[in-house]
Design a protein that fits this description.
By secondary structure, this protein is α/β, with parallel strands linked by helices. The chain folds into two domains: 248 residues, Rossmann fold, CATH 3.40.50.2300; 151 residues, Response regulator (Rossmann fold, 3-Layer(aba) Sandwich), CATH 3.40.50. The N terminus is likely disordered. It has 15 helices and 14 strands. Strands 5, 6, 7, 8, 9, 12, 13 and 14 form an eight-stranded mixed beta sheet that branches. A two-stranded parallel sheet has the order 1-2. 45% of the residues lie in helices and 14% in strands. It starts with a helix and ends in an 11-residue tail after the last helix.
């Protein structure tokens, strides 16, 4: 009797264990990670996604997840290629059908390719500091979130900074816009044209073909144009190439100011002395003095679960930016659980609601040790951006030093531009915009 009972008991125990594993597995928040760590922009992706994943691990280790829900993810390599980005999305979307954190692909081109697909599949795109600017209008783009601030608001903030630097006026000045010849680089043009008209400066547009390691002709033209400033919209190897080229033709680097994707250690360190004095916009600071960054190193790497093989990247601009993206994403999961039930993973549709109802205050950022990784974020149906503010930082030859407080672009000038664009998009696609006054 006893012998015959033991196998039955063992089988029952195994069954209970399997059921228990399934129950635990059900309480997971899945992040489709459409990432890149190889190719011409791979070094940037390594730092960003390393920081992002480290923070998810941090929440799992430090808090046992969000109210018990563990953060999980799967990466799919895109090499910053639009077609591969779509393939990765299609590969991962089935897993995201039951629970989905925001999708961060860190590519404006891939975001353009996915914006209609993700809306159809009810999976939110968190285009944090990239993507379609007009997706700020959530009445037309319910599943697209160009969070923190957009290219157009960033461009406007940079103009405001240069205006202050020029004594309060840019009238009669000449500004070159040197940009990555892609959807990313073209996003800011409409805002810069509007600012040029308003502030009475002339603007010269100079595109650079991907990946940007050949810029001789462009900098010859810049030398001929003799601009007062260069606004620089680069990515990857294009950035260090531009800084070296500027030095070669004698253009002062403290007259160059880049977008937040041209302002990382990956951009300036390889350029050596050519980078000193160069400025760039940012929404997050570098360094381990940010409490959560220091704690990630202690908790995650102390447990041997760090994502970065090159730990020297911990605390760099792009690593900290990846952490900032994960902080925002986890706070969205936390917000969604307040509405849909604590301890329950969110569907894509529920995560969309959460992203549209964020209210991340300075007090909350301080509480989680993330001060200076994000400005305050407050989103709504008609504002999927949530902030619109940047800081300007300058490379002193060894580190990034903030040289401004938070700067907000000219909302009254810029917002009507993307609202008109969103309205036109809705007309072309046959979309009936939501009534945001009825959204809560």
């Amino acid at each position: 009797m006893i012998k015959s009972f033991k196998p039955a008991f063992a089988a029952a125990a195994v069954s209970l264990a399997i059921l228990s594993q399934h129950a635990v597995a059900a309480e997971e928040q899945f992040f489709p990670m459409i990432s890149y760590r190889v190719g011409p922009y791979g070094a940037n992706g390594q730092a960003f996604y390393g920081g992002f994943i480290d923070y998810l691990n941090y929440v799992n280790l430090k808090e046992k997840g969000v109210n018990g829900v563990q953060m999980t993810w799967e990466e799919c390599e895109t090499e910053y290629n639009n077609a591969k980005g779509v393939e990765c999305y299609e590969r991962l979307k089935a897993k995201a059908a039951k629970s989905a954190g925001p999708i961060h692909n860190m590519s404006t081109g891939i975001s353009y390719a996915l914006i209609d697909k993700s809306a159809q599949d009810k999976l939110p795109l968190a285009m944090m500091g990239y993507g379609r600017t007009d997706a700020v209008d959530g009445s037309v783009f319910p599943y697209a979130f160009p969070l923190v601030t957009t290219y157009q608001m960033q461009a406007s903030a940079i103009v405001k900074f240069l205006k202050d630097k020029s004594g309060g006026s840019l009238e009669g000045k000449k500004i070159v816009y040197l940009y990555h010849d892609s959807a990313y680089g073209k996003e800011a043009i409409v805002a810069l044209n509007a600012e040029a008209s308003l502030n009475k400066f002339s603007m010269v547009q100079i595109p650079v073909a991907h990946p940007g390691n050949e810029q001789g002709a462009q900098w010859l033209k810049i030398r001929q144009e003799k601009p007062d400033y260069v606004i620089f919209w680069g990515w990857g190897v294009m950035n260090q190439t531009a800084l070296k080229a500027a030095q070669k033709v004698g253009f002062p680097r403290d007259k160059m100011i880049g977008s937040w994707w041209t302002g990382s250690e990956e951009d300036v360190v390889p350029a050596g002395d050519a980078a000193k004095g160069y400025m760039a916009a940012t929404w997050n600071v570098a360094g381990k003095q940010v409490p959560v960054i220091a704690d990630i190193e202690k908790v995650v790497y102390g447990a041997g679960k760090g994502n970065m093989q090159d730990t020297s990247k911990i605390g760099t601009i792009l690593y900290n930016r990846g952490v900032s993206a994960a902080v925002l994403s986890v706070e969205a999961i936390r917000k969604g659980q307040e509405k849909y039930g604590k301890g329950k993973p969110l569907t894509g549709e529920q995560t969309r609601w959460a992203l549209e109802n964020l209210n991340i205050t300075d007090a909350r950022l301080k509480a989680i040790g993330a001060t200076d990784l994000l400005p305050e974020i407050k989103t709504s149906c008609d504002n999927h951006e949530g902030s619109g503010k940047v800081k300007i930082q300058q490379w002193d030859g060894a580190k990034w030093v903030p040289v401004s407080g938070w700067i907000e672009g000219n909302k009254s000038l810029i917002h009507p531009l993307f609202q008109a664009s969103a309205k036109q998009y809705a007309k072309e696609k046959g979309i009936t915009p939501r009534d945001c006054s009825k959204e809560k």
